[in-house]
Every structure is written in structure tokens, then in C-alpha cells.
Amino acid sequence: MSDHLLFSYGTLRLPQVQLARFGRELDGRPDALVGFRLETVKITDASVVADSGSDEHPVAVPTSDPRDAVEGMVFTLTPDDLAAADAYEVDDYLRVKADLRSGEKAWVYVDAATAEEFRATRLLTAQANAITLFDEIVRRGLIAPGRTEKDVSDDVRDLANEMFGTTRHWHKRIVRSGPNTLLPYRENPPNRVVEADDIVFCDFGPIFEEFEADLGRTYVLGDDPVKHRLAADLPVVFEAGRQFFAADPEMTGARLFAEVDRLARERGWVLGHVHAGHLVGEFPHEKIDAADIESYVAEGNTTPMRRIDKAGRVAHWILEIHLVDADRGFGGFYEQLLDL
């Protein structure tokens, strides 16, 4: 597993705390946390007070003003070190990814009372950027007959870099047309030329300010009424699934998957994949593993979706709607944030 950058402005910079929590002193470099100011929090955890020598600790509060900055140090931590840091920071703090003055992104422990709003705003901003990108794909006519799926994918990559600066993607870029639209995410079909009467879907996961967007949209190039009906049904099924989720505070991935499956069949389609969504958040997000059913909107996930992860962060979700018509040999795809 890879190392992590952690920005510290408080007691994690102290040699005695590092020795107690990591077993060694850390090498660091100065930097600053942008868009935050410092306040003070009273610590009641006896072990934390003993290690730091104080029951009053600084806490960073987001201001959204880029002129505000908190000075501190950047350290490189192993995954085990990061887990030890999580254990040290009390419930008043929440670990998030944030911008540093140097241009780097790092984990930082900030005020838990305001951090979730900070995370939600970043996730929604990332999605808004992705929607803007998709709108520009249409405006520039990048999806057109005679072009290959790879042509479109490469142009979208270049367009994202043009619009937002060098943009990373947290999962592979997907452009699928015709019969390739039947295939789920993990498949890698041969590159195909888009035809005049095709249905095409795009699935991209750009990263903006270390927060992941995950957006999928479907486009119909010809006049086929069935393809147009499928494309129109995608956001309808998505919204019905979102309302079903919103109505039950104890919603599980299994129950939501079953409802999305029912909604699809009600409209004459079937689902094209074994899950209908997944966790999303800071990059890299909470482990998404095929063996970890709790990461998915899928059969077998009986854990409530509204939960807190190991670092104390609210779990946020993407809802994926992949509808297919196997007899006619095409499908469509639509996804975005479920719970925000």
C-alpha cells in the first residue's frame, strides 16, 4: 500500500507525540493549509493529554477564504502510521483531503463539526465540474459517427485538461457504443467505431481538488425510438431510486439494488451489472473491493448505507443505472451522487 501525505498544524508535530504514536520522529517540511483558520478545542482523552502535555489543542476550521492559511508541517506516513494518527485524534477532529499552499494535497485533521459540510461541498463541486465537462462534450460534437470509442475517450481527457488543468481520473475512462453498451464496467471490449444510429454512453471519474466525481450519461445519435426511450428512462429510474433511498434512514445496499432492479423491469429493461453503485469520496476513496460487498449497492449488502467510516467520515454513495435490452443488443448508463 502507498504512503500518505499528512499536514499537521498541532500536536502531531511534537517529537514526544511522534515517538509515542509512531515509534520514531518524523521528517517533515513546512507548508500551509489554505482556506482555514485556527480555533481551540478542549481535549478530555487522558492518553492524548499525556502524550501532548496539554488539554487544549488547536483545531482548523474551514473558512472558504483563500486568504486564510494555517502554518504547519507535511509528513509522509505509512498506512500503519496513518491508522495510528487516526487513533490519536479524538472525535472533535475529522480527517479530510485539503489544498496546501505548495499546491500539494494532503490529509489533515480539521474541526469535525464543520468538516462534513466541507466534504459535501467538495463532492458536489466535483460533480458540477464533471457535468460541465459532459455538456462541453456535447457542445463540441465529440461523439459522432465514424469516430472510435478511443478517439472520444482521448478527446474527453484532453478537454478535461483544457478546462480544469491536468486532470486525473480515479477509474478508467469508458466510452461504449452499440453492442459494447451491454457490457459492465470490468469488461474491456475491443475498440469500436461509432455508427450513425448508435447509442453511446460515457462513464468518467475525474478528480477535482482530491475529491472524486463519477458521472455517466447516454447519448442517442439516430432516430431509433426504443433507444430514445431507454435513454429517457435512465434518469427516471435514477430519481425513483434516489427517492426510495431518501425515504428510509436504514436503507441497505441490498434493498436499494432490489428496488432499482424492480424499477428497471417495470419499464421493460433489465440491469446490466451485479451492482447499482458504490462508495465515493476523497481520492483514494474508501477501499472499493469486489470482495467487500459493503462497498456496493448490491445483493448481499445488508449493512445500512448511511454510516460512518473508520476515520469518522460520513459514507457517500454513487447510484449507477445500467439498463440493457439484450434482445436488441444495446444498453444505456446513468450515474451520479445518490445522497447529496
UniProtKB/TrEMBL annotation:
Originating organism: Herbidospora galbida
Domain Gamma-glutamylcyclotransferase AIG2-like, residue spans: 6-111
Pfam family name, one: GGACT
Ranges where the Peptidase M24 domain occurs: 132-304
Protein's name according to its UniProt entry: M24 family metallopeptidase
Taxonomic placement: Bacteria, Bacillati, Actinomycetota, Actinomycetes, Streptosporangiales
Gene3D superfamilies xref list: Creatinase/methionine aminopeptidase superfamily, Gamma-glutamyl cyclotransferase-like
InterPro entries: AIG2-like_dom (IPR009288), Creatinase/aminopeptidase-like (IPR036005), GGCT-like (IPR013024), GGCT-like_sf (IPR036568), Pept_M24 (IPR000994), Peptidase_M24B (IPR050659)
